Amino acid sequence: MTELKRTKIIDILQSEEFGKTVNVRGWVRTIRESKNVAFINLNDGSTIKNIQIVVNLEEIPEQQIENIHSGAALSVTGNLIESPGSGQKVELNAKQIILLGPANPDEYPLQPKKHSLEFLREKAHLRFRTNTFGAVTRVRHAMIFAIHKFFNDKGFYNIHTPIITGSDAEGAGEMFRVTVLDAKNPPLNEDGSVNFKEDFFGKETNLTVSGQLEAELAALGLSEVYTFGPTFRAENSNTSRHLAEFWMIEPEMAFYDIHDDMDLAEEMLKYLIRYALDNCQDDLEFLSKRLQDEDKNKKQEERSFMELIEKLKFVLENDFERITYTDAVNILRDSNPNKKKKFQYIIESWGADLQSEHERYLVEKHFKKPVIVTGYPKEIKAFYMKLNDDDKTVRAMDILFPGIGEIVGGSQREEVYNRLLKRMREMNVPEKDLWWYLETRKFGTVPHSGYGLGFERLLQFITGMGNIRDVIPFPRTPQNAEF
Ligand code: 4AD
Ligand code: MG
Fold first, then answer.
1. Long-range contacts: 423-429, Cβ < 8 Å, 24+?
2. What is the pLDDT of residue 1?
3. pLDDT grade for 229, boundaries at 50, 70 and 90
4. Within its chain, how far is the Cα of 187 from the centroid?
5. Does 229 contact ligand 1 (Cβ within 6 A)?
6. What torsion, rounded to 10 degrees, do the Cα atoms 454, 457, 459, 461 define?
7. Which ligand is in closest contact with the Cα of 172?
8. pLDDT for residue 3 is more than 80
9. Can you name the CATH fold of 9-101?
10. Is any ligand 1 atom within 6 A of the Cβ of residue 261?
11. Where are the domains of the chain?
C-alpha cells in the first residue's frame, strides 16, 4: 500500500466522502474486542472527538492488533464509512494498522478511566492526552490568538518587554533573582554585602513581575501598545489562583483616562468570551459536563456560580457593575458574613485591603455579576497610580469575576513628574533604578492608562477549571518546578 498523507481527525469527522481511503494517526484512547471485530477509539488532539476505527478480524490478522492498548500511537489506513450508531456520523474501516509506538499497559499511567486532576498534575508529561487537558489546551490557544486579534484589529502594537529586569515594577519586592555569581562564594563589598557589580549585568537583576513600565515608555510614542508575556512572582501563595510563573496581557494607552481604561477592559473581556463561545463549542460543552459532574460531589455552597456556558453568556450580556472602593467597603461591612464573622478577614474600616473572599462576595452574592472597583486607598496600591484630588485614593480599577475574584488590575498612571517623584519617595521606590521612567514625565508627558489581565485567571473563568495549575501546561508553584 502506498503511503497516504495523514488527514486530521477533525477534518475526517466532518467529511462525507464515504468510501474514500484515508490515513489517520493518533493515540489510542480505548480498544475493545468482540468475536470478529475490534473497535479502537483514536484521538490526535485536533478535536475532543475520537474517530472510531472498526477492525474486521477476518481482514486484519489478530496479531496486528495484539499489542495495541490505551496510549499506543497508531497509523491507520482505511475506508470512511457511514456510522450506523449514534454519535459520530463517520467511522473508519481499517485496511492497514501500523503500531508506531506501543504503550505497555502494565506501565502506562493513564488508564481508560477517570483520573483525578491532582493525579494528572503529577503526570503533566502525559496529561495532554486526556480529554480535559486537551480541551483546556485548545481553549488556551484560541484565547492567545483572540487576544492578538482583538488588539491588532484596534491598531495596538505588540511590544516585547524584557524578562530580565533591574527594576521592581510593582514595588512589592517579590522577585526571583537572576545571577551568575557563585551562590556559595559570591564576591563581597567591604561591608559584607554581595558585590553585584561583578555579576553578569553589573547590577542586581531579577525576573520581571510586569511589563507595564516598559509598555508605558512605548505608549508614550506609539499611543496604543500591549505586552503579552510571562511574569514571575516569588510570593508564597499556595492558592488555587496563584502561580509563580504566569502570563499577563498588559495594554497601555496614551490619552486614555481611567474610564476609557475600564471601557477597553470590559470590551476585551466580552470579546474573548464571545470568541470562545463561537470557536470552542465542542471543548466548552465537554468542560461544562465535566464541571457538572464535579459539582455533584460538592456541597451546595461550594458548587459553581452557574453552568459554564450559561455563565459565559450571562457575563457577555450584562454590563459590569462599577462601584468605588468606599461603596465596596460599606457593602462588605454591612454584609452577613462580616457581621457573623464568617469572613476570614473581617472588614472593620475604610482602608482594609480586599481579599478574594470579599471580592467573591461582591460578585457572587451582592451584585451577581462582574464588578469593577475604582478609587482604592493609595496605601494599598502601587506607586505609579494617579492620585485623586482627595489625596487619599488613587485612580485604580480592579475587575472582579465570579469564581475568580480579581481578574484584571489596572489604573490611570501618574503623569505629573513632581507628583510621581513624591509617591516614589513616600513608598521607598528607588529613583535611581527608574530614572528612565521618571524622564518620560519630563518630556512630552500625557495622561495615560493601562491594565493587566492574568491570562490563567481568564482561562479558569472560561474553562471552569477550579485550580490554576490545570490551565497552564507546566505550573510553577512553591516547592514545585517539575517538568
Ligand atoms: O494586579 P497586578 O499585580 O497588576 C500589575 O501587575 C500591573 N502592572 C498591571 C498593569 O496595570 N499593567 O496583576 C494583574 C493581574 C491580576 O489581576 C491577576 O489576574 C493576575 O495578574 N495575577 C496573577 N495570576 C496568577 N498568579 C499570580 N501570582 C498573579 N498575580 C497577579
Ligand atoms: Mg492587583
1. 423/378, 423/383, 423/384, 423/387, 424/383, 426/383, 427/171, 427/383, 429/168, 429/171, 429/383
2. 52
3. very high
4. 40
5. no
6. -130
7. 1
8. no
9. OB fold (Dihydrolipoamide Acetyltransferase, E2P) (2.40.50)
10. no
11. 9-101, 129-174+209-470
For ligand 1, whether the C-beta of 253 sits within 6 Å is no
Give yes or no for residue 454 CB within 6 A of ligand 1.
yes
Ligand 1 neighbour 451 (Cβ under 6 A): yes
Let me know: does 224 contact 155? Beta carbons within 8 Å. yes
- Given a cut of 90, whether residue 303 has pLDDT beyond it is no
Pick the CATH number of 129-174+209-470 from 2.60.40.1180, 1.10.3720.10, 3.40.630.30, 3.30.930.10: 3.30.930.10
Residue 423: count other Cβ atoms within 10 Å of its Cβ: 20
- Ligand 1 atom with minimal separation from the 212 CA: 12
Nearest ligand (C-alpha, residue 238) = 1
Total length of the chain: 483
With the most atoms of ligand 1 within 8 angstroms of its CB, the residue from 248, 260, 471 to mutate is: 248
Rounded to whole angstroms, how far apart are CA atoms 74 and 68?
8
pLDDT for the residue 271 = 98
Backbone angles phi, psi at 120, to 5 degrees: -65, -30
Q: Mean pLDDT throughout 97-115?
A: 93
361 CA to middle of ligand 2, Å? 17
Q: List b or e across 1-18, with b for residues whose CB sees 16 or more CB atoms inside 10 angstroms.
A: eeeeeebbbeebbeeeee
Q: How far apart are CA 294 and CA 470, in angstroms?
A: 14
Task: Assess contact for 116 and 124: CB atoms under 8 A.
Answer: no
CA of 408 to the centre of ligand 1 (A): 7
Tell me what the mean pLDDT of segment 53-72 comes to.
Answer: 93
Q: Tell me, what's the pLDDT at 2?
A: 57
Global confidence as pTM: 0.96
Residue 177: which region, alpha, beta or left (left: phi > 0; alpha: psi -120 to 50)?
Answer: beta
Name the grid cell of 67.
499489542
Q: How many angstroms separate the first and last alpha carbons of the chain? A: 40
Measured CA to CA, the distance from residue 120 to residue 128 in angstroms comes to 10
Residue 235, pLDDT above cutoff 80:
yes
Which grid coordinates belong to 42?
A: 483514536
The amino acid occupying position 134 is: G
Helix (H) or strand (E) holding 42: strand 37-43
Under DSSP, is residue 95 helix (H, G, I), strand (E, B) or coil?
strand
Q: Which of 83, 29, 57, 120 is nearest to 475 (CA)?
A: 120
